[in-house]
Amino acid sequence: MHFRVLGPLEAEGAGRRAQLGGGRQRATLGLLLLHANKAVATSTLLDGLWGKDNAPPTARKVLQNAVRGLRVVFAENQRAGGSPTLLTRSPGYLLRVEPERIDLFQFEQLAEQGRAELAAGRTRAAAKILRSALALWRGPALADLVEAGYGWAELTAVQNLRLDVLEDYFEAELANGRHLAVLAKLTEVAEAEPLRERLSHQLMLALYRSGRQADALSVYRRVRSALVERLGLEPGRDLRLLQHAILAHDPALLAAGSGAGRAGAAPPRPEGPVHLLPRPVAPSRVSAILIGVEVGAGLRHVVDGVLADVVTAVTQEVALFGGTLTQSMGTMSLAVFPDEPDRVDCAERAVRAAVAVRDRLCYPTTPHSARHVLRVAVATGEPPADRPSALDIGGALLVECESLVLSADANEIAVCDRTRAVIGSPQGGRHGVPFGGPARRIGPPAADRGPELDVLDSVLERARGCGRPHLVSVLGAPRTGKSWLLAAFERRAARTAVGLRLPDRRFTAAATARLRRDVLFACCHVAPEDGPVTARDKLHRAVLHAVRDRHTAIRLSARLRAFTDVVDAVGGALDDGDEALVEDWWELVAALLCRRPLAVLVDDLHLADDALCDFVGELLGPPRPVPLLVVTAADPGLFLRRPEWGAGRPHVTTVTLDPVADGTAALLPGDGHLEDRRTAATRVS
């Protein structure tokens, strides 16, 4: 006879399935098969059939009847061609059967062979053998008995053995470059077993090799959350190192997946270089950011998680400005910005990225988020001629970064002389801001942009009068005063409109939902420091005040309270595709704006991510009339990304800024007057 336990229990003899008895008889056979060729105590069988110390007085009699029935089944199949033997052996019973006749033993044998091949580096043979082993499974072990309520520790061990073999199989296939072939199954298993770090490691690697870096990093965040919430543990060293390697785009991660043609001989290389496309021009200049973070004493017990969050933030903010995180070791991170045609100068992009990183980590949007102490250096120079890539900096530029970051005070951005010259800083040096919040930069005097402010005022008044959305695109080269114009108009508009300045970057799982939340919070006067309870209360009162029909007000308040649960700008799970929720959102926004229009301001739109650009476009096409003004400021490079920006829409105005006089140009962080009087003065290096 042959027995199958890797799935529903089955017994087969002489080419036909044996007819087993009732549930107790099947459970007795299943438990004996898990201990084949070993004596199983009667007490163990009784506990397995009825639970520990729950056996009824007739339990032994029922067990004896089950054993007797199994012996009859075995005897019938013996006449048909061979059968195992069920013996009475102290302290209970012993099922004597050839191991090869049990699929569990076959699985263990194949798994051992596959692991030996894997250890020897023969990954193709290992994958084939392990695949054959896994093919023996027809479902969870003894699935029919599990469904009937039997939950033995032996079954858990068998299921864990299958997961171990699955991990070995995935490892072999990843080594063979077959990440796409196993990705679906790997995703399914890893999501079902979030605490198995090896599976998550393999899934992150497969996703990265499939070009899905963001998904790979999201797996790390999910696993880390599961480990912290369930066990109070941080991910292990291997998983953390993989996350850092993904963030740094380590070429070693692609080693196994890049050899698609290894089966055949490589074609001979031509003697001279062959260029089918124009060779890229090496950048003439490169800027580097070196960021050091201090972990507070209260966070040192979770230092690995803190550093992982810092690296994630640095990677995202740097990428927004066209830079690349090239190295991250301990508390230090290095990002590089090559000079590129048709883009803002690398030094200016590096400084903006440094400010963005500092603002995100030192001044979090929620009171419960951790505040970090940073020291940041920005240096600009020529890329090393002896390095294969402009991203591979070293020598004098790296030494200058190290010197600057060591001399910087807490939360300061220290810049070199060359960077200072490029960004046009008359004061130069390091820029420090205390925990009062990041300062807003004010550039040229108001007299320079009076006509443009008058245009914005008139368009806002027109939007209020006709109850329709209007767009004003402010265009100008760097340092023409775009940011100052938006800041000045924001102060003016606050007297007659609801003002909202949207950030020029968003890195969240549901970016559009959070932008929609920002608009709703502005209309309901929810402050950034308000927690979910306060936000919910303000939303409810605003709805009752704006919506006359009480039933409609209660419905909108209940539906839209989901936004108040997403006060954290990184967490949450709002569905951007919930059309009914979006319709309710528009209904409430229209009701809230019936008395005061909404002025939405977006600076540096040419640097914004696609989610923000799409959302601004959505604001300009509401399903119902809304008094709304959107003012965007951007470099002309916006039309390289979005050639159709504003085209074909009604109520669109473009304001082009001419260069301002020398000495009144809009200044970058650390220059000019600071709106917040509490801000620390800029120090000269």
Automatic annotation (TrEMBL):
Pfam families: AAA_16 (PF13191), BTAD (PF03704). Residues 15-95 form the OmpR/PhoB-type domain. Residues 102-247 form the Bacterial transcriptional activator domain. GO terms for biological process: phosphorelay signal transduction system; regulation of DNA-templated transcription. Signal peptide: none annotated. This is DNA-binding SARP family transcriptional activator. GO terms for molecular function: DNA binding. It comes from the Bacteria. Belongs to the AfsR/DnrI/RedD regulatory family. Keywords: DNA-binding, Transcription, Transcription regulation.
